[in-house]
Amino acid sequence: MSKIMRLDKFVSMNRSDITRSIARQLCRQGRILVNGKKALFDQKIDAESDVISVDGETVKYKEHIYIMLNKPKGYVCSTKEKDGPTVLELVPKELFRKGMFPAGRLDRDTEGFVLITDDGELSHKMLSPKSHIDKRYYVILKEPLREDAEEIFSLGVTIDGNEKCLPAKLERISENDRSCFVTLSEGKFHQVKRMFKAIGNEVVFLKRVSIGKLELDKNLNIGECLEILHKDIQKLLDKT
Question: Does the annotation mark 107 as catalytic?
Fold first, then answer.
């Protein structure tokens, strides 16, 4: 199916450094070409078949963009600056796009995998309670794990006295009885911390390491981003 749109809209969507007004100026200066010919800013183009260039550089069409961020502590998963430093501030200029948002949340003091995108449909699928998309966390605790921790998590922890969580998977890390992996299929507020509090322990470090079957890239340093290839997007929705 063709993607017909105005030229100035196409350029501003796919080049974060060019607004629609700048695109119009560039067209008047003859610096934007469509299939090798000087273009009018309001002409209609087929985003999937026409070749658009700005100053000789081809502008590639992407309907949506998907960014993997290795979130550091101190940043909030929000689009509102009033909430504090936001994860959007960590997206480099060459990857930034209007309409981006974090798909889901991590606490300010939690590190790890955050998906940033402009694809509302994918975000809805990921976050829908019906989807039960697994999210895996690396956890360091204040006290050693109790012997029955795996069983309690597998049956569903009751938090704050009466709120029952879905069954979760706890995996001990053999060389350290204060660290483990926890896999959840829901996303209650501060859930991992509240679950361990319910069994008499305290989380001192928390990092999300995967969403669905897509793991945080081990080469991605804290605070860095990379673009997720479209062939890997389905992994976000796959059950582990």
Answer: yes
